[in-house]
């Protein structure tokens, strides 16, 4: 999930729509609401956040260092001012990157992946047995051949790969894929997506690489 902070609701809604086309869940906040949320949100909710995008906010309304106290997710500033002084002030405030608008959503996603890779939190891809699972929106490969997947199934596989070695609950998967504030989608939809994903992986691999235990959640295995 990507969190977008901007004083203009139309902007947060616009970005949410664009990210949704890429199969990426979002949550939009006004600056005042965001400060209260980030200081009180549960750790499990913050672990679902892939990055924070900070748009037009009153100076001093958002503290990247406050975000850093709670999570290591990248903080990216979206700037409409093309001046060196403004860009330097944003970096001095603690953001990880400054992106000048207009910018394509895929460029933002590529920057997020690059920042996380440099921070040793996320590689460009993860290999699980004969699977190569990319973190930049590309379909996974099995024995070097692409496996086309619908965007939700692909994002679930990416999320499982990014948490390789530990189990994730159905709630955590849902929050990462649909966002923590999406009340229009039932959490049980995760089971349906995972069932379809397992079937496709089983057909190509000859075995089921997703281990599940009731009440404990899911994890990828060799």
Detailed description of the structure:
The chain has 222 residues and is an alpha/beta fold. The protein is built from nine helices and eleven strands. The chain has helices at residues 9-21, 31-40, 43-46, 64-70, 84-93, 105-118, 151-162, 170-178, 189-205, and strands at residues 2-5, 26-29, 51-54, 75-79, 97-100, 125-128, 131-134, 141-142, 145-146, 210-213, 217-220. The protein has a five-stranded parallel β-sheet, with helices on both faces. It has a four-stranded antiparallel β-sheet with strand order 6-7-8-9, with helices on one face. A two-stranded antiparallel sheet has the order 10-11. Helix 7 crosses helix 9. The longest helix is centred in the C-terminal third of the chain and has 17 residues, at 189-205. The radius of gyration is 18 Å and the shape is globular. The relative contact order is 0.12. Residues 123-222 bind DNA. Residues 1-116 form the Response regulatory domain.
Order of helices and strands: EHEHHEHEHEHEEEEHHHEE
Decide which structural class fits the backbone. Answer: alpha/beta
Q: Return Rg in Å.
A: 18 Å
Number of helices: 9
Helix proportion: 40-55%
- The unreliable regions are none
Question: What's the count of strands?
Answer: 11
Strand order of the largest sheet: 2-1-3-4-5
For the sheet with most strands, the description reads:
5 strands, parallel
Q: Could you tell me the mean pLDDT?
A: 88
Q: What does the overall shape look like? A: globular
What distance separates the N and C termini? 26 Å
**Beta-strand residue percentage:** 15-25%
Pfam families: Trans_reg_C
Organism: Mesorhizobium dulcispinae
Protein name: Response regulator transcription factor
Keywords: DNA-binding, Transcription, Transcription regulation
């Amino acid at each position: 999930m990507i969190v977008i902070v901007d004083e203009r609701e139309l902007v947060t809604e616009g970005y949410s729509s664009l990210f949704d086309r890429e199969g990426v869940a979002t949550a939009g906040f006004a600056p005042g609401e965001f400060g209260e949320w980030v200081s009180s949100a549960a750790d499990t909710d913050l672990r679902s956040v892939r990055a924070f995008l900070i748009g037009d906010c009153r100076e001093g309304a958002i503290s990247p260092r406050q975000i850093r106290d709670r999570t290591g997710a990248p903080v990216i500033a979206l700037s409409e001012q093309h001046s060196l002084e403004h860009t330097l002030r944003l970096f001095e405030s603690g953001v990880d990157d400054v992106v000048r608008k207009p910018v394509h959503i895929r460029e933002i996603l590529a920057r997020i992946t690059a920042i996380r890779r440099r921070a040793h939190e996320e590689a460009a891809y993860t290999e699980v047995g004969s699977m190569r699972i990319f973190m930049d929106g590309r379909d996974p490969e099995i024995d070097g051949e692409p496996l086309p997947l619908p965007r939700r199934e692909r994002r679930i596989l990416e999320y499982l790969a990014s948490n390789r070695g530990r189990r994730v609950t159905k709630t955590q998967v849902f929050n990462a894929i649909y966002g923590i504030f999406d009340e229009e989608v039932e959490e049980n939809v995760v089971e349906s997506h995972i069932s379809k994903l397992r079937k496709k992986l089983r057909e190509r691999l000859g075995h089921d690489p997703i281990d599940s235990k009731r009440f404990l959640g899911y994890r990828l295995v060799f």
